[in-house]
Amino acid sequence: MSEAKKYPAPVTNPETAAFWDAAKQGKFMIKRCTACGEAHYFPRSICPFCYSDKTVWEEASGEGTIYTWSLMRKSPTGPYAIGYVTLKEGPSVQTNFVDCDLEKLKIGQKVKVVFKPTDGAPLPFFTVA
Amino acid sequence: MTIKGKAYIAGIYEHPTRHAPDKSTAQLHAEVAKGAIEDAGISKDDVDGYFCAGDAPGGAWPMVDYLGLNTKKLRHVDSTETGGCSYIIHLGHAAEAIAAGKCSIALITLAGKPRTGVMPPRAAGAEVDFESAYGATTHNAYGMCAMRHMHDYGTTSEQLAWIKVAASHHAQYNPHAMLKDVVTVEDVLNSPMISDPLHRMDCCVVSDGGGALIVTTPEIAKSLKKPLVKLIGHGEAMKGPRGGKDLDLTYSAGIWSGPRAFEEAGITPKDIKYASIYDSFTITVLMQLEDLGFCKKGEGGKFVADGNLISGVGKLPFNTDGGGLCSNHPVNRGGMTKIIEAVRQLRGEAHPKVQVKNCDLAIAHGTGGLLGVRHAASTAILERV
Questions:
Q1: Degrees (nearest 5) of the Cα angle B348, B354, B355?
Q2: Which of A115, B4, B6, B62 has the fewest CB atoms within 10 Å, measured from its CB?
Q3: Whole-prediction pTM
Q4: Does B203 touch chain A (CB under 8 A)?
Q5: Closest-CA residue in chain A for B152?
Q6: Which CATH number fits domain A17-128: 2.60.40.3580, 1.10.760.10, 1.10.10.10, 2.40.50.840?
Q7: Residue B124's CB: how many other CB atoms inside 10 A?
Q8: What are phi and psi of B11, to 5 degrees?
Q9: Residue B190 Cα, gap to closest chain A Cα (Å)
Q10: CATH superfamily of B136-206+232-384
C-alpha cells in the first residue's frame, strides 16, 4: 500500500540541500551544534537551543523508538500511520510508519529508517526494526 | 502595566447558520459585524479598531474597505493569525490597544465556509520538506496527543467520551446546534475510529458560519445598555517540537497562557464558575483542563468523567452552547464562539436549562494549529461587573 503511494518531492533549499544529497546515498542526517553539543531535527544552520552558527552535519544511526503514533483510517489516499520517532541520538522526528502491520504499532517499539523514492530526493520513513 | 479592567466586551454575535452555500465569505463577515455592532448598540462609523485573522478574505485592508468601516476614524488594525485561537488573542490585543489609547471601539470578525467548500491550504513553514509528506491533519495530530496521554497517564476512551456526552447534554437546548441528540459514552465508543484512538464522536463538527465581538473602553461600555462584561486577564503562548528535543505531546501552550491570564486576573481556577474550553476534539478539552490548572496533569480523565462538565450536574460547566463538538466550529476555528458563550453566561443570556447561577467569573480558552505538531494558545478571563 505505502509502496504504491506517490510522495511529493522535497523542494529543498540552500540550508537543507546537504540533507537531501545524503538521502540520495541512503544516509539519514541530523544537525549537531558543536558549541552546546545538542543534536536537532529538522536541520537548521543556527542551533535552535544556543543560537550558535557552529552546527555540523552528522550521519544518524537511523534507529529509534516510537514516541507516539496514530493510524489515520479516513483518508482519500488510504490509511496511513503518522507518528514521532525518538532517535538514538536524541531528537524526535515526525514520520510515517511503513512496510509493517500498522494495526500493531506500539509506543516504545524499536524502528529504523527506510527511504522511499519521489521524483526528487528520497524521503525518510520508519519501519519496525 | 496590565489590561485588567481596561476593556469590556460590549457586543457579541454568533451567526445562526451552520451551512451557507448561498452566501459569500465576505458577506458572512459583514453579517456578523452588523450583528455585533447592533448587539452593542453602536454605529459602524464609531468603530476605530479592526481585528481579523486568516479567514478574512484578502486580510485586513480588503475587509476594512468591504465592510465600509469609517476610514477617517479607523486608527488601529491587527491581523494576528494563530488559527482557531486568533480571536482570543485579538481580544487581548484589543484590550492592549484600548489601554494604550490607540482605539476605543474594536471590532473582531470571524467567518467562513468549510462545510460548503475546501479551505485554502495553510502557508508552508520552514519544516515543509521534513513534514508535509507525512500527512499531519487535525485528526491524526490530536490522535497522536491522545495516544501518548493514554500511555503516560492511563487516560481512557471512556473518559474522553464523557466530554462529548457533556457537550451533547448542552446542545439539546441550542436550536442552532448541528447535533442536538444527547449521546452516551457507548455511542461515542461505538462510533467509527477515525484516527486512533479518536472516534468520530471525539471530533468536532465542520460548520459554515462565524461570529464577531465589539470590545470597548469601560466608559463607553457603561454608556451602553448591555450587562457589563470586562476582561480581567489574558495570556498567549506558542509551542512546537523545537528541534525535536524533549518532545512531550501531553501538554499544550495552555500551560503557559493559562497561568499568565490567571496571574493578571488575580484569581485561580477554583474561582471560575463557567469554562469555555476549545473542543476541536475531546482530547483538546482534557489537555486544556489540565494545562489551565483545573486538575493536575494526568488527572484530566478522572476530572471529566461522570458528567463533571455538565451544567447543573458537575463542578465545572463547560461549553454550554454545545461547543464545537455539537453546535458550531465555524471555519474550523472555535475561539470566537468560546468567547461568545462565556459572555452569554456572564450576561445571564445562556439558555435557562444551562445558565450557571450567579455566573460572575468565566474563562474562554482556545488553541490554534495542531497540538501534536506546533500551535498557539490563548486564555481570557472575564468578569461580570
A1: 20
A2: B62
A3: 0.97
A4: no
A5: A107
A6: 2.40.50.840
A7: 11
A8: -145, 135
A9: 15
A10: Thiolase/Chalcone synthase (3.40.47.10)
